[in-house]
Specification:
heterodimer; A: alpha+beta; Penicillin-binding protein 2a (Domain 2); Beta-lactamase; 21 helices; B: mainly alpha; 4% strand
């Protein structure tokens, strides 16, 4: 096989020619570098040194946010910052600092400290010397600009939240983009950009922020603009109109304002899912994030035991307590384990699986059927319904009502809650479900957990006759259309009646909260935080051991316009704490004067 | 197809290669040293170029170079005839991964040319380029002609054309162009002058056709802006101009390491990848550029020498194929940086940042060294 050497010489000649050609091209390219760097070098050096071509960003103004009636919630206000380019200082830097210190009325040492922080950075990189300049300071710097070309005033736009903490849980706030976000956004964000960190500002950041433009300008060695070389205009962010009703929002915020007022309020249109008010308390002032955030402010927010940055409406899950009887009654009637006239006799306690379960009412409710059991929130009646349904059927109805999954609200961070069933018990707890637990779940205790916004969806379904809506804050948000859920209309009718009785019948649990003329239907709930051997009144217990209070409701009962959910963490009882807050909101919404005599 | 290692190489007797170390002593120092020095210069420049970016790419590139060196040693120790035998499979795998890009690819800067596997992203086009070089080398080595016949040229071009077309419709014109230098192998294999002239004419006509019907708006834009930079001062024209300012202002000795105003002030786009040479030119001046170009010249002439003394046709074609790819990168990128060629995404071997690209450069250096180490066996 002597094929190896054949035609080898031909190949070698061709390789030699090819490599000569390549070397030739390399010499041409090297000559190109020689021409640009040595012949034209001083021309380009001058261009580079004078920084003649400058790319300057044109910041896109961020979109404004309005409430449903067009009242402004967030606006942009201009703010002036003083920048210094050390490479352009005509004399020693100390002279520049003395000049700035005099105008700003601040000690030179303070400015020197700022400069020291930028020691390692390239000298031609502008440094932020001071923020929030007054117009007077700006004009004095402008007047003396010729002697001090190193200074430049930059206009920034600050976000001003007109109603501060009252709308914080809805709107969120802006913060400097993190390195991680810069990398993931692949060029959409630059370091130092402000982006929405929570709430509407976060979810709708791409809409609100618009697109920054840029100008390329030719400047002289003093930084004076000679001509514009090119321009790409900024595309301003779009304005947003929320479904929020500012009056109702402010009333809700006022109701939860104050010490030991921890909780959440949601008001929603039961037909569309438009949110009318949404408050999480304690709140925070989002305007502190607009300026350079003070370390102490941030630390105070983090250290607060009540976690103001947490949005309790969507991020905290709680046991529903007796409000869950809405689900139980609908399930029992739809599945026909009880009919509207089936009666149970409540003596104040009942025995299941060899264990005694008490009703909250010591003397008992006597003989009750579905409607009266809801009105009096009779535990014993619903123990029986729960036993007949079994946990898996309870779980099925809880899920139909939207529990155990996010509602799809248009702000991030929503929790899904927990709907326990047999499969869950085996999988998550590695133990079987005990029938006794079903009895607890029947009155909304035990491992079942939900968020206040899920409660609003659940209540809407009762109000609108079985359509699951997707809650949303932006008026024409692209959300899923309401979904019809197979619930028995007759069952819902009974639940309606029971809930109306709760508020409007003198023996209902929330009669104290009725609103004349508003026809409110509701359900109270009280969630035990610690087992109480002996019942103490709420005030006698330390705050953190007090029961949580729920009140969920809608009105008017015939043609529901609004759903109101109130959750008071450690509020005591649903009837005494949560229901009166809802009453105040209905009074505001329907413009009813609750205390005409007091005038 | 017949098995190359059996058909065209004479199997050496066992005692003919007693010490693997004997191979080591015959490593071509010119090639190895230039590759190593270029990678070191690249690391320093990547660090400088990315110092004002949100991410310092130095640690990552350091990792890529480390992996590249390991791959170089592994590849070097494999007999290249084994690689040629495997080339059909590699070529097919390359084609499959290029097709896969359309279904599972990740988009970056206008073109879908990345595949993500877990936390890893890689560019199939880089590896397909390598596999194509191997496969064409194998094919050409199996022919034993003074000059190729038309039928053979067409077959070789078809092997080449498939991946080129797949990359071009990603659409990544730069990536597609990078595969073209494999034509160097066909030229070495021999082509009749009359045919060469005809082919050139056809290529020009085709080029005009592609320009009119086959190019995306932004690609045409780039070529037009290259011809007249003032056309689009904010886009490609801006890049050319900024690159020239950076290069030119470096003058003879440069502004000093990390002191380039153009690059540090973020005027230069893609300064850690495609425009890394502008950063180097600005900070180290003409002296720096000349040093780097000399190192590339050393690399290329060393590789050409290796090709000329290779043991068999397969070795010659393999080395010629691999080095023409590298050559093309160097020539195109440096010409682009100094304003001779339109801007397209063609990085500079060993200097530009990039995982897949760095690995492929080291692998191809490893193969070339491997060819050289085995040159004595048959002489």
């Amino acid at each position: 096989m002597q094929v190896v050497r054949e035609h080898r010489d031909d190949l070698i000649v061709r390789v030699r020619i090819l490599s000569a050609v390549v070397t030739g091209i390399m010499i041409v390219i090297a000559t190109g570098f020689w021409f640009v760097q040595l012949v034209q070098g001083s021309y380009y050096r001058e261009l580079a040194e004078n920084n003649r071509l400058r790319k300057m960003p044109i910041k896109a103004p961020r979109g404004l946010i309005y409430d449903r009636t067009g009242r402004l919630l967030v606006e942009n206000i201009p703010s002036y910052a003083l920048m210094i380019d050390r490479s352009r200082a005509p004399h020693h830097l100390d002279q520049s600092l003395a000049f700035a210190a005099e105008i700003l009325g601040r000690p030179v040492e303070e400015l020197q400290d700022v400069m020291d922080r930028y020691q390692g950075t390239p000298v031609f990189q502008p440094v932020l010397l001071a923020e929030n300049l007054t117009l007077g300071e700006v004009s004095r710097i402008g007047v003396q600009g010729l002697e001090h070309p190193e200074f430049e005033v930059e206009v920034q736009h600050l976000r001003l939240y007109r109603h501060g903490g009252q709308t914080a849980s809805v709107l969120g706030y802006l913060g400097e983009v993190t390195q991680d976000e810069v990398e993931r956004a692949d060029g959409h964000y630059l370091p130092g950009d402000l982006v929405g960190k929570k709430g509407i500002e976060q979810t709708y950041d791409p809409v609100l922020r618009g697109r920054d433009g840029e100008r390329v300008v030719v400047v002289d060695s003093r930084g004076e603009l000679l001509e514009e070389y090119g321009r790409k205009p900024a595309i301003p962010g779009k304005n947003l109109t929320l479904s929020l009703d500012l009056d109702l929002q402010q009333e809700a915020a006022r109701q939860l304002d104050g010490p030991e007022k921890v909780g959440a309020i949601v008001a929603m249109d039961p037909h569309t899912g438009e949110i009318l008010a949404m408050v999480s308390s304690p709140s925070y002032n989002p305007n502190i994030f607009s300026r350079r955030l003070q370390r102490s402010d941030w630390q105070a927010l983090l250290d607060d035991p009540n976690h103001p940055l947490q949005n309790r409406v969507i991020q905290n899950t709680y046991s529903p307590g007796s409000t869950f009887k809405i689900v139980m009654a609908t399930a029992g009637l739809t599945e026909r384990v009880v009919d509207p006239h089936s009666r149970a006799f409540c003596t104040g306690a009942a025995t299941f699986y060899g264990r005694s379960f008490r009703c909250w009412k010591k003397g008992g409710h006597g003989s009750v059927e579905a409607e009266t059991a809801i009105k009096g929130s009779c535990d014993v009646y619903f123990y029986g319904v729960g036993q007949r349904l079994g946990i898996d059927r309870i779980a099925k109805y809880a899920r139909l009502f939207g529990l155990g999954e996010p509602t799809g609200i248009d702000i991030h961070g929503e929790k899904r809650g927990l709907v326990p069933d047999m499969a869950w018990s085996l999988k998550a707890r590695k133990m079987p479900w005990y029938p006794g637990e079903t009895i607890s779940v029947s009155i909304g205790q035990g491992p079942i957990l939900m968020t206040p916004v899920q409660m609003a969806v659940l209540t809407s379904m009762v109000a609108n006759g079985g359509y699951r809506v997707t809650p949303h804050l932006v008026r024409d948000a692209k959300v899923q259309a309401p979904v019809r859920v197979p619930l028995d209309p007759d069952a819902i009718e009974i639940v309606h009646k029971g809930m109306w009785d709760v508020v409007n019948d003198p023996s209902g649990t929330a009669y104290a909260a009725h609103v004349p003329g508003a026809d409110v239907a509701g359900k109270t709930g009280t969630v035990q935080v610690i087992a109480q051997a002996q019942r103490l009144t709420a005030k006698a217990l330390p705050f953190k051991y007090r029961d949580h209070a729920w009140f969920t409701s809608f009105a008017p009962v015939k043609d529901p316009k609004i759903v109101v959910v109130v959750f008071a963490e450690h509020g005591g009882s649903g009837a005494h704490t949560a229901a009166p807050i809802a009453q105040a909101l209905y009074a505001k919404y329907f413009k009813v004067d609750l205390h005409p005599a007091a005038r | 197809m017949q098995n190359i290692s059996k058909s065209i190489s004479i199997q050496p007797l066992a005692e003919e290669r007693p010490h693997p170390l004997r191979h080591l002593s015959s490593i071509d120092l010119g090639l190895a040293l230039s590759a190593f020095l270029l990678a070191a210069i690249g690391l320093a420049t990547v660090h400088s170029a990315s110092s004002e970016m949100p991410v310092d790419y130095f640690p990552r590139q350091f990792g890529w170079v480390g992996i590249g060196l390991a791959l170089l040693i592994i590849v070097m120790s494999i007999d290249y005839h084994v690689l040629l035998d495997l080339s059909v499979m590699m070529y097919l795998a390359g084609i499959v991964s290029l097709i896969a890009v359309f279904f599972v690819g990740v988009q970056r800067g206008g073109a879908v040319n990345w595949i993500q596997i877990g936390p890893w992203q890689f560019q199939p086009s880089e590896f397909a380029k390598l596999a194509t070089a191997l496969f064409i080398a194998r094919y050409l080595a199996s022919l034993n002609m003074r000059v190729l016949e038309l039928r053979q040229i067409i077959l070789a071009l078809a092997i080449l054309g498939l991946p080129v077309i797949l990359v071009a419709i990603e659409p990544d014109m730069g990536g597609a162009l990078m595969t073209m230098p494999l034509i160097g192998m066909i030229l070495v294999a021999g082509i009749r002058m009359r045919l060469l002239v005809t082919a050139t004419v056809i290529a020009l006509v085709l080029g005009a056709g592609v320009w009119t019907f086959g190019m995306h708006g932004y690609q045409k834009q780039r070529v037009l802006t290259f011809l007249n930079p003032e056309r689009d001062p904010l886009g490609a024209g801006y890049q050319v101009r900024q690159s020239k300012i950076a290069v030119g202002s470096g003058q003879l000795t440069g502004k000093g390491y990390m002191q380039g105003t153009q690059s540090q002030l973020r005027f230069l786009p893609a300064r850690h990848t495609d425009f890394i040479l502008s950063v180097l030119a600005e900070e180290w001046g003409f002296a720096g550029v000349l040093t780097v170009l000399s190192l590339y010249a050393l690399y290329i002439t060393s590789a050409a020498r290796i090709a000329m003394r290779a043991r068999d046709r397969a070795g010659i074609f393999l080395v010629v194929g691999l080095v023409s790819v590298t050559c093309f990168h160097v020539l195109y990128n440096s010409a682009m940086v100094v304003g001779f060629m339109p801007i397209t995404g063609i990085p500079l071997p060993f200097l530009s940042y990039g995982g897949s690209f760095t690995m492929v450069n080291f692998i191809s250096t490893g193969i070339i060294l491997g060819v050289d180490m085995r040159r004595y066996v048959n002489r």
